[in-house]
Design a protein that fits this description.
The complex is a heterohexamer, with three copies of chain A (97 residues) and three copies of chain B (324 residues). Chain A has 97 residues and is of the alpha+beta class. Helix content of chain A is 30%, strand content 43%. In chain A, helix 1 packs antiparallel against helix 2. Chain B is an all-alpha fold and 324 residues long. Chain B has one domain: Na+/H+ antiporter like fold (Up-down Bundle). Chain B has 15 helices and no strands. In chain B, helix 13 runs antiparallel to helix 15. Classes of the chains: A alpha+beta (97), B mainly alpha (324). Chains in contact: A-B, A-D, A-F, B-C, B-E, C-D, C-E, D-F, E-F. Bound molecules: adenosine monophosphate (AMP) (3 copies) and sodium ion (3 copies). One adenosine monophosphate sits at the interface of chains A and D.
């Protein structure tokens, strides 16, 4: 097991492509996406409808250095489009250890 | 003017049923994917029908319809923006986002209008379908331009990238691709082979529309809670802008394009209706500063029900007086 | 009594196919939204058909059908509750929750019975559709009352709020709104305009039912694993209660309402069947102490297959002897 | 970044409205909902079917004081209807910091 | 050889539209459940039609079709494996997984071929539908055997359990159950009752296929990004293996089974096509060492479009020369 | 409230049955499943399509001893089929405390 940062991001589905291209730039390969999430925040209620303005929940496990880069990259997006980003500690059960 | 029985077409009744179900706080809910599936079906069906008709008509007529659609698509948002900024005194970014919705069209309203004409056995030209497919794009672009003007000079690198994306999006968003693609398909496919697929798109059409409007009725009523946020002057905008649009559309359909009653009504509906499927995500991207509660409540909660219940019969009456 | 070929109607075969698929542990799975979409379609179609027929019939007949439905809806749960508490010796809260299911109806079973009658070219009255729409509500309310009595005095503030919610729910839950709403719609809409949407609700009906029953067959078989939890005496209840209900229903249909063979069968099916769509969530809210494994397994895993495979032909035979 | 409590609640979909009205009472604005979850617990297996008895997964980021109020409000609901509530620590990447 | 107008059947055009929509990076997306729903419908419809036809034909013919299907299902993966290992020089585990896909069949391609024949008003035997249902299973089993051979001796306890699961899966996976089940159903159900459900499965068939292919076009184009990973020699395999399969299929259909042009084309298509629905999850379980990017890109991104656009008309031309 | 381990597993949907039978063997009753997840990792992009090769996100709250057993059981599955497993600390708001 390896200590990692667990980054949890909630953003609008339409912003997803943007965030992934930031991850690519930073060199973070792995992430998990749960689509069709709803929620409420400063910008009111959001839910999956035919307008497709739902949220996605993205989870990224990465080392501390990468986490810092991800946070820096995500901050302006959150500022502009809303959403949240939580960071916590976790142990990663690595495949080969 | 128009009898009550005009209102009793199933399309409108289903919308009302959905609206009512939500008002009495029923737990009735459509799976979100069902609404998406229904709207895919409706767009393809509209496109195919349009395409089959287009294969029969002359290019000149099509060209002037395209020109009119571009004119409406670029012109209506400017009118809406002017009203919003000077009369409603809304901030420019929200005004830009809302304007784009009114330049574009609501396929659901358009199809309801077709159901309305059908129920009265009034025929219509097929050009309005092309206009439907075309009017999405200019509205998105003009919305972007207005927002960029409102921000003037603030456009940074990020902004430019978003703009590029959005112009791309304006021509490739799902509704546009489905409408234009299936229209082309309907125009070039072997007629004999098309006959095999058309029962699916013909016989089910009004039925699928009934379910779609049932869901849209619920969606519209869900927005009522946001009426307070929108405020009285914007609510007034939500019913006057369709009237302004309809007037422009009636004039365009009758005088510019020389359509009959049916075609004129459809052009009025194109102009009077506001998008609530393709434009909201585009404006969310283009103008994140704008509040979705405003533009969605106006287009889906105010203008859509207004057009379906009051607007269509009213515009029809006007079209009859003009072209009848 | 009835020939095997009665069983070979596609509706029942599809149910059996789904059941079998699950028994052999096939990985076949329906997306959950598909099943919801199919049931929305079926409820609207049943309602519309009922409404169109209702527009033609007299109010007196409709009134006595409504009265009968209320009688069955309030009476059957009381019978079921008595059996469960005194014969099965089940605790009162689980008994209350299960009873409510048996007072309500299974639209899937009802529609299978219609398919059954169709395959034999036996006509039926249209009143039972109204009864179908009405029987959901009293069953939910009586279930709540029984549960509150079982808890006697424990009712705190929270309890009262839940009760209020549930009485509201009993009249506004999705199935009731779809059935009653589309029935009304079918009765008042312009006939000419209705003709445009009915192909969708007519021609596809039996086909959609086939897919729905395929999925319900899988759902029913999934419950078999819970048979052990349910225990032998409850399993016996799961096949005797429909027989009791059917007897009451046959009597009501034939003597009280004076229906023919078709109508009498349908009333029997209404009384014999147990809800597995609208009532489970309502009872989950009303009686959280009750086990969903019990009420779902009984209604969906035992009574539903029993009615579809054994019950309908049996009740039909009885209806023929009575009214034939 | 700001330290927050990350509350994770799994409840039945039919209970959601109840929980949200508790949040409103407490004054917690933000939450994220992932619908159509399944699971297993003391009350057996639950899954999204046509009966609509599925679970939802709700995530709430809030400060410690609000978290205590949420927990107090949620406890009787969990007792009555089942479900779980996990609380952990996280850092919130705030939009404007 | 064949005129361009053959290409203009709506099925192929819808596939092309989906492909194009993805190429221009449209945001058009089908809800995943919609694609699943459409494929459930298509499989049941194919099965029912096959079953109705089968009820009319002789058992001897059916038996030889079954034998031919087993031959193809077991034989084609061995050919594919040999080519992959010796010509393409791929590692044995990836080769095993890919081979299984080519032994199985693509229902989407099969149905497109039927639409193609329909558009030319060419009739076809009904045996190929049985073959379609049968060919899934042997391919999965042979894929498993090849993978176990490749691992030789490494098979531990876990491996054995997976093998048992997979043999079970080979006969009970969703596609097989739907096809075989509804075929049986079509063969034994009361014809009069079947008539009630067939409008749903008849009239909508080509329309549903059009939406399904629209989505599959998008799926196929999404795989283009993985072409680099696949490499040139595998890409060549993706278009030559269908040709090899088609040749084997044409020979089987014409000489072994004595089919006409229509039936021979369909056997060729069965042999030439590669599964992209049932086999991928099975191979993911059976050969986790193999890369889904390889087998999915080949079956869905290369062979499927190749067959739909080039293959079907080409095999038809060959079938005409053989059997015409 | 009781301190527990929060195990978060992302695996392919087809592996789910396998993992659940391991949990049964260990005696872990409770878990929550979020279906239709997508993601990217060493084995490339995965998403929910008609091929059904999507991921599921499974969350398990259990005590430390059970967590160790779950991790041991899950490791060979992760090795063979890919996916990730993160372990973190949380407080469980128990129903009756
Ligand atoms: N405090 C919170 N806890 C959990 N999720 C939140 C919170 N605040 C915001 N969110 C999520 O982030 C989305 C966007 O938030 P906002 O931009 O503040 O409207 C909301 O729809 C929620 O899904
Ligand atoms: N130990 C656990 N870990 C994760 N989720 C759980 C656990 N226990 C219960 N759950 C979730 O909470 C739901 C209700 O639990 P219960 O009320 O215990 O049946 C279950 O269906 C699971 O989704
Ligand atoms: N670093 C990561 N963070 C979050 N999720 C991951 C990570 N790596 C892998 N995953 C998830 O695990 C799945 C399988 O990973 P892999 O086996 O590495 O391809 C991916 O599709 C992701 O959903
Ligand atoms: Na407009
Ligand atoms: Na009943
Ligand atoms: Na093949």
């Amino acid at each position: 097991m390896k200590p990692v940062k667990r980054i949890e991001i909630v953003i609008e589905e339409i912003e997803l492509e943007n965030v992934i291209s930031e991850l690519d730039r930073i060199g973070v390969v792995g992430y998990t996406i749960v689509p069709r999430a709803g929620g409420r925040g400063e910008r009111g209620v959001r839910s999956e409808t035919v307008q497709g303005l739902g949220n996605v929940l993205m989870t990224i496990a990465c080392d501390e250095r990468q986490a810092a880069a991800v946070i820096d990259a995500i901050r302006p997006i959150l500022k502009r489009y809303g959403g949240i980003c939580l960071v916590s500690d976790a142990m990663w059960v690595i495949h080969d250890s | 003017m128009f009898s009550l029985s005009n209102m009793l077409i199933p399309a409108i009744l289903f919308f009302a049923l959905g609206f009512l179900a939500q008002l009495i706080r029923s737990d009735l809910k459509f799976p979100p994917d069902l609404a998406k599936a229904l709207s895919i079906y409706l767009l393809v069906a509209i496109g195919l029908h349009g395409g089959i008709e287009l294969a029969k008509i002359d290019a000149a007529g099509a060209l002037s319809a395209v020109a009119a659609a571009l004119g409406l698509g670029f012109g209506l948002p400017v009118i809406a923006y002017a009203i919003l900024v000077w009369a409603v005194r809304l901030d420019r970014l929200n005004a830009a986002a809302i304007s784009a919705h009114y330049g574009s069209v609501s396929a659901g309203t358009f199809v309801t209008a077709i159901a309305f004409l059908d129920s009265l056995k009034v025929s219509h030209e097929s050009y309005p379908v092309i206009m439907l497919a075309i009017m999405e794009s200019p509205a998105i672009i003009i919305g972007l331009v207005l927002a960029n003007m409102a921000r003037k000079g603030q456009g940074n690198g990020h902004q430019k990238r978003v703009s590029r994306e959005l112009v791309h999006d304006a021509f490739t968003n799902g509704s546009v691709v489905l409408l234009l693609g299936s229209m082309l398909l309907g125009a070039i496919a072997q007629p004999a082979a098309l006959d095999k697929i058309m029962p699916f798109y013909d016989m089910m059409f009004m039925g699928v529309l009934s379910l779609f409007l049932l869901d849209m009725g619920m969606e519209a009523a869900r927005r009522i809670g946001d009426f307070r946020k929108v405020g009285p002057s914007l609510l007034v905008f939500g019913v006057t802008m369709p009237l302004v649009g309809a007037a422009v559309g009636l004039a365009t359909g009758h005088w510019l394009l020389g359509f009959g009653v049916g075609g004129t009504l459809l052009v009025a509906v194109l102009a009077a209706s506001a998008s609530y499927i393709a434009v909201p995500p585009a404006m969310r991207l283009a103008v994140p500063e704008a509040s979705p509660a405003l533009f969605l409540t106006l287009s889906l909660g105010v203008t859509f029900p207004f057009n379906v219940i009051v607007g269509i019969p009213l515009y029809f009456w006007a079209a009859q007086r003009l072209a009848g």
